[in-house]
Design a protein that fits this description.
The protein has an 8-stranded mixed beta sheet with strand order 3-4-2-1-5-7-8-6, sandwiched between helices. The protein starts with 6 loop residues before the first strand and ends in a 7-residue tail after the last helix. The protein contains 17 helices and 14 strands. The longest helix is centred in the N-terminal third of the chain and has 28 residues. The protein folds into 2 domains: 236 residues, Acetylglutamate kinase-like (Carbamate kinase), CATH 3.40.1160.10; 148 residues, VC0802-like (2-Layer Sandwich). It is an alpha/beta fold. Bound molecules: adenosine-5'-diphosphate (ADP) and aspartyl phosphate. It comes from Maritimibacter dapengensis.
């Protein structure tokens, strides 16, 4: 089918916290603000408070509710914290007292609704026939949707006040009886909108029977965004971020030292997402690729800069494009009797799947299998217990470490492993392990946690800053 005349654009949480600064530059751009659909994430930090902190794992409402024993109401205090944080966020954004008041009413109504739902559910599950754990995924879905409903509502209010015909499109399924698929939800939500006359501000959370959280987990706004772009045949899908997609985290190495990627491919984007630095959610990337919708990632605060194009291209200049890191827990299973015996790996994988531990990377030799995983220490301990039960003779070591990775579309003949190790050694940093794969798109250095940030700076200097200076690479 032919592409439409509109774009679908996503604004991430960090940028949403400053959405007032984007009003006249990004949202109301040029003479005609229309023919664009905006999909928004919750304001920065809100989903962390609703569920659990994405990086530290600190419990939010969901995690506290899931763990609560009878008479433990700590989740209620957490829900109140969400309410306060939401009100604080929109008070900083909306100028008109009438809008602030409407937004506060909206928050109170939704939070109160969620509170009643959780209390009722708790009560219901005190009867033997209803098991709370069978309903927890629904609780997770309901809580997630609160964050995006709020940010979309506030953004639409702000734009209407500025004279734009903006429309709040709530896909979160609030008080909705329907049970529809993601595609049906999107189609229903957008059915009566004329994008040439109206600016839809759509919730990045979409309620659907398959469960958006359940299927895609955190970062789900990009899935909603990609689905909308694919279904409406957008001419382009654009993700607006706080910075350009850069050669390293600008907050870590200084924005002035980083380089905008300019152009990269889905392979690199997948590696980034595996390491928690989401350029784009892998499922969202797949949807856009299949629908043949071009994807761009821009800096929300530099609307005139075209940003980074992501496609299927192979790099024209070989080299490292980005350095990123992730805190991991390594689970090393050593068993002398492992040599030549099958079944260890499968058993370890099963335990990890059972306890929802995400595997980032792995290595093995004759008698040792090591997985580098993301997940709470508590779930990793459960994995350890299961493996120990199944293989009583195995020695299992669990350690907290970080993977620092150098990634690029084409790392052939770049000696990234050797040069990286030399640079880290010269800087006096201890590398625990390192590995490259024959596909030549990434090289991983395993570092002690407290040296990861330093390692990023050292590798960035070696592979990006020095090369730039030497003129090896054209600036993007
Ligand atoms: N290579 C990188 N390029 C740009 N930002 C990065 C990079 N690595 C880490 N970041 C960090 O990601 C943070 C969140 O960025 P952004 O994508 O806008 O967030 P959100 O998930 O809220 O959309 C930024 O504050 C920045 O510090
Ligand atoms: N707010 C959700 C969904 C999302 O995609 O957020 P962001 O665009 O800020 O990564 C989350 O934190 O998971």
């Amino acid at each position: 089918m032919a592409h439409g005349n509109h774009t679908v654009e996503k604004i991430g949480g960090t940028s949403m916290s400053r959405v007032n600064e984007l009003r006249d530059t990004l949202l109301i751009a040029g003479d005609d603000p229309y023919n664009r659909m905006f999909v928004v994430s919750a304001f920065g930090g809100i989903t962390n408070l609703l569920l659990e902190h994405k990086k530290s794992g600190k419990q939010g409402v969901y995690a506290l509710f899931a763990d609560s024993e009878e008479d433990d109401h700590s989740w209620m205090a957490a829900l109140k914290r969400v309410q306060d944080a939401m009100i604080e966020a929109h008070t900083g954004i909306l100028e008109h007292p009438g809008d602030v008041s409407d937004a506060t009413d909206f928050v109170r109504d939704r939070i109160e609704g969620a509170r009643s739902f959780l209390i009722d559910l708790g009560r219901l599950c005190s009867y033997g026939h209803f098991r709370l754990n069978e309903h927890m995924s629904m609780v997770r879905e309901l809580l997630s949707g609160l964050g995006e409903a709020h940010s979309a509502f506030v953004t639409a209010l702000m734009l209407k006040r500025a004279g734009v015909s903006a429309r709040f499109v709530d896909l979160s399924g609030w008080r909705d009886e329907g049970d529809c698929s993601l595609d049906e939800r999107v189609k229903q939500g957008l059915s009566d909108i004329d994008v040439s006359q109206e600016l839809p501000i759509i919730t990045g959370y979409a309620q659907c029977k398959e469960g958006l959280m359940n299927e895609y987990d955190r970062g789900y706004s990009e899935v909603t965004f990609a689905r909308i772009a694919a279904l409406t045949h957008a001419k382009e899908a654009i993700i607006h971020k706080e910075f350009h997609l850069s050669s390293a985290d600008p907050n870590l190495v200084g924005e002035e030292n980083t380089r905008k990627l300019g152009h990269t491919n889905y392979d690199v984007a997948d590696q980034l997402s595996n390491l928690g630095m989401e350029a784009i959610h892998p499922s969202a990337a797949k949807m856009l690729r299949q629908a043949d919708v071009p994807l761009r990632v821009t800096n929300a605060f530099e609307p005139d800069d075209p940003g980074t194009l992501i496609d299927d291209s192979r790099g024209d200049t070989p080299g490292v494009e980005i350095i990123t890191a992730l805190d991991v827990i390594s689970v090393e299973v050593f068993e002398q009797d492992m040599v030549g015996v099958k079944g260890y790996d499968t058993a370890i994988l099963d335990a990890m799947k059972r306890h929802k531990v995400w595997i980032v990377s792995k290595t093995s030799n004759a008698n040792t299998i090591t997985h580098y995983v993301k997940g709470s220490l508590k779930s990793v301990r459960r994995v350890e217990r299961d493996i120990a039960e199944q293989f009583p003779g195995a020695e299992i070591e669990v350690r907290t470490q970080s993977i620092v990775s150098a990634i690029g579309r084409d790392l052939r003949k770049q000696s990234v492993l050797g040069r990286g190790l030399a640079a880290l050694d010269e800087a006096g940093l201890d590398v625990i392990a390192a590995h490259a794969t024959p596909r030549n798109v990434d090289v991983q250095f395993l570092m002690p946690r407290d040296e990861a940030d330093k390692a990023i700076a050292v590798l960035h200097k070696a592979f990006v800053e020095k090369e730039e200076k030497a003129g090896f690479r054209e600036a993007a």
